[in-house]
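PROTEIN SPECIFICATION:
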Amino acid sequence: YLISVQRIVDVLGEGGLQSSVAFDGAADGKWALQGLEENSEDQIEHFETKVKWTVIVSGVCWLISMLSLIGGHWEHLKYVGLLSVVFGLPPILLKAYKSLRRCQFDVNCLMSFAVFGALALQEFTEAAAVTFLFSISENLESRATARARNALSAIVNLRPDRANLINPMTNDIVVVPAEAVAVGALVSVRTGDKIPCDGVVVEGKSAVDESSLTGESRPVKKGPDDKVSGGTLNIGETQLVVKTTATVDNSAVARLIRLVEEAQANSSPTEQLVDEFAKRYTPLVILAAISMCTIPWIWGKETGKIWVYNGLVTIVIACPCALIISTPITYVAGLAACAQRGVIVKGGAFLEALGMVKKVAFDKTGTLTEGKFALLHLNVIGRRWTREEVLEYMALIQARASHPIGAAIVQAAKNESVSISADKSVESHILLQGEGVSAVVNGKQFHIGNPRLFQRIRYYDDIPETSKALVSDWASIGGTVGFLGIEGEGIIASYCVADAVRKESKSVVGSLEKIGISVTMLTGDGNDAANAIGEQVGLTPEGIRSELFPKDKLDIVNGMIEEGLSEGSSFLFNLFNRRKLVLMCGDGVNDAPALAAANVGVAMGAGAALAMETSDVTLMDSDLNKLLYSIKMGKRVIRTIKENVAFSLISKAVVMGFTFAGKASLWAAIVTDVGAMLIVTLNGMKLLPSKKKVKNVDITPDGNHDGNLQMTAV
């Protein structure tokens, strides 16, 4: 699609082949898309719930049969209950048959058995009640949970399907599948279009809605050299021309989709425990019901009938619907609520773990701070080297490094118009974990890094005391200090880079401590710089750990885990002895081992891509307030599951008590079962956020807008 039709004709002509254009699909700026088949894997199911007409008829017949309870001439209406069974029971029987073929005994089997037992006792109204109420309960359950499932499906639907590719030769716009856009291509993003891939704006100024990734509905202004993410929406009034930096499969929205899909596939230990309990609980109750339906016949026909009826009630009570659904619906709602706010949690297990966190370890750079360094000071030691030469060598070596400090030094060289000579070549470039970088430039061994590196290679003691004092002053105000050294010459320069503390860091640290969570900052910086940053975010000296290698961070996190370790794998097992879990939050640069070792690893969305893939939780917009939100959501999830499980079991116990007292009925049992299921479902669904409207949002590039824009964030 990067070659025009006329170019093909010309090339064929140069080869002696005559050709003519029968049809040019790009002539009008559009590609012939009719021939493209949609990938079935990209079709996202949207959950809809409709009540079948047979269920409606079954309900009407049941209500009519209820009139038989009046007595007298109305008593014959109980036979209308048979029609209710005829219309409502077949789908239940079909599901029960399929379950029995798989050697499974599920709720459909229980309900079928209860209906046939009621018919055998000629309790037609009761049989109709069980049939209709169970049939309608499945629809009500689906209707109640569809919102949560659709919320997660909507995230997967963010995947762009088309891109307006700009032909670099003709500047024609060709509409192609988003998957076909290569890295480095130019795409046109008109008003209302999705940005197909991650990229950089090269032309135009507009406003982009990033709520699909970050959960924030306020549009973000974008202009030349600004980064944009695939799946976000151009809602401004100007076209953007974007140069792609990633394919659609490697874009931010693609990573988000993979995380959401993984989250839906993972189940928590508590969910597994509840399912296992239901599997053991149901057979025991069925065995009791069978005993009630058979043994009492020894004491006579009337006694046998009474206990058969009680046995049928027990079978209905044995239905574990409310218990089974109490955990997954809560997790789905919690996961969807987090995802809508730009927090991706990889399954209910980690959502539950968030609620048990008692210790949080923060990496400093890129987590508590913004990770956007700027070179503040550069001091050349001695007179042999000039500032320009020092910057040139530093930029040459740091250009190959991945740490934000390296990017700051490279940018400083550009700002001072320092160019790198073509005759300088870099060899043996080595990243020294927790220390810096070393490389060989034109045969000379260079070192760039923190004081710890130069103390190890015995360069530090040789620099003048005035230079040491200067570096100490820089560190005392929160700057990150380092040196440039050459083998055989020693240290030739010192520098200071600074990183701004995130505006929300102090409030988040304070809020975590208020809810009983201890906070620790882990950093490779020196003591002075670490204490300065720690003080700014509200940490005490005891909560600051400095001069750490990546392995040191790993050891500290492992030590925290051992301190809070206790037996058990879920809150149900540890109801009175809650586990004290450790959360590590970082950007994946130098802290990946600690992230992996923590009970819950939280990656900043602006950090390393690998950290997002391997972490348990991802903050898509790197807002620490979202971390606080996710921890509170975890606590709400645990509390809600406790409420649901307790209510499910108590409601079963109450009906069972009435049954043995001879006061229960089939319709009351099914109403209790359906009611309990709906209550626990709605209780879990309360975790989903309500719709919020953001008014008067500024979306124009110049900050002025004539009217009021009303947006809705779901």
The two ends are 38 Å apart (CA to CA).
